[in-house]
From TrEMBL:
GO terms for molecular function: 6-carboxytetrahydropterin synthase activity. The lineage of its organism: Bacteria, Bacillati, Bacillota, Bacilli, Lactobacillales. This is 6-carboxy-5,6,7,8-tetrahydropterin synthase. Signal peptide: none annotated. It is an enzyme of class 4 (lyase).
Length: 124
């Protein structure tokens, strides 16, 4: 028999600025808005969780990026702040804050536009 998996999905936005650098080219600093969607799965199916509890934990991570210049963050020193690299960093940080919440981050999607998204997902 198939096992039911209970999951929660949260959507938010990060407003920050960045500058792309590749080779000898240095782009202009520009503001950007990324959509971030997180799918969170309970570690057991005993009881439901409050959306607000998980949302607050995810929010602490996302808030730390609001109105920042990504290139200045230690995690982006020597690394281009691409959507893919931002998704990796968010996945790591959000997974950390959810460790003690009886749930885990199953998937994160970071979209740089309505038609361009990058996702990371844990396989079962």
């Amino acid at each position: 028999m198939a096992k039911k998996i209970y999951s929660y999905r949260f959507s938010s936005f990060i407003n920050a600025s960045q500058r792309m650098e590749w080779g000898d080219h240095v782009g202009e600093r520009y503001p950007h808005t990324w959509q971030v969607e997180c799918t969170v799965v309970k570690n057991d199916n005993d009881e439901f969780m409050l959306f607000s509890d998980i949302e607050a934990s995810i929010g602490t991570v996302l808030d730390s990026f609001q109105n920042t210049y990504l290139n200045d963050l230690a995690e982006f020193q020597g690394k281009v702040p691409t959507t893919e690299n931002l998704a990796e960093l968010l996945f790591k940080r959000i997974s950390e804050v959810l460790k003690d919440k009886n749930c885990h981050l199953k998937k994160i999607m970071v979209g740089e536009s309505p038609t361009r998204q990058f996702s990371i997902e844990i396989s079962d």
